[in-house]
């Protein structure tokens, strides 16, 4: 689970795993999976990680968390990150499931969340119940009542300080512009900008299996 990473780790006598030379002293959570050549950066990224799932977080082959990105989860939250993904100071919030597929890139300050204020949680009585529950929980985490899964398909580029809201699926090869607020599904190869996000153009697909094989052939 923590072998052959891009950062060396050490295991304590109690079985806890630490990133060698980490400026933050906490161990990595036991219910995360880091594939070969993954770069978790720092255990500080998991200070608000409260998932009780068997695997609450996974970071795929050669993927990296850079700039102290933060992974916030409730007890039922789960974050899945594919292969060759760049998370640059990215905040991911999950009370259900956030899935990021291979070859995606997230610029600094981007936010992905499967939890938000809904018509139900706007009720004063519901808000009071949520706040009282958080006050009595061991970690003071405010669990969302209506989380909706988020899916980022392969080869998506998200610009700095963009926000992807609950229930959204972003199609393969799409580009999300800087500071864009994404409130609904984005089709493949669309370029989306603004608040709320709107499609301004579509890209010509260049990441087809045929083009990929051509690129590999040029490297051999």
TrEMBL record:
Keywords: Acyltransferase, Amino-acid biosynthesis, Diaminopimelate biosynthesis, Lysine biosynthesis, Repeat, Transferase
Keyword Amino-acid biosynthesis among record annotations: yes
The family this protein is said to belong to: Belongs to the transferase hexapeptide repeat family.
PROSITE patterns on file: HEXAPEP_TRANSFERASES (PS00101)
Naturally occurring in which organism (per UniProt): Nibrella saemangeumensis
UniProt name for this protein: Acyltransferase
Keyword 4Fe-4S: no
Gene3D superfamilies: Hexapeptide repeat proteins
Domain of life: Bacteria
């Amino acid at each position: 689970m923590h072998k052959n990473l891009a950062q060396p780790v050490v295991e304590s006598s109690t079985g806890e795993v630490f990133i060698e030379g980490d400026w933050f002293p906490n161990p990595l959570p036991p219910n995360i999976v880091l594939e070969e050549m993954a770069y978790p950066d720092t255990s500080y990224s998991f200070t608000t990680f409260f998932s009780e799932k068997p695997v609450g977080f996974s970071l795929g082959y050669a993927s990296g968390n850079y700039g102290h990105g933060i992974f916030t989860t409730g007890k039922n939250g789960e974050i899945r990150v594919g292969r060759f993904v760049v998370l640059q100071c990215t905040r991911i919030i999950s009370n259900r499931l956030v899935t990021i597929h291979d070859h995606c890139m997230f610029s600094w300050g981007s936010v992905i969340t499967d939890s938000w204020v809904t018509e139900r949680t706007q009720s004063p009585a519901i808000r009071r119940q949520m706040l009282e529950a958080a006050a009595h929980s061991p970690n003071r985490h405010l669990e969302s009542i209506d989380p909706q899964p988020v899916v980022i398909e392969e080869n998506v580029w998200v610009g700095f300080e963009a926000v992807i809201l609950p229930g959204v699926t972003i199609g393969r090869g799409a580009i999300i512009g800087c500071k864009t607020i994404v409130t609904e599904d984005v089709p493949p190869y669309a370029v989306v900008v603004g608040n709320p996000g709107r499609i301004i153009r579509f890209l010509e697909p260049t990441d087809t299996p045929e083009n990929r094989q051509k690129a590999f052939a040029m490297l051999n």
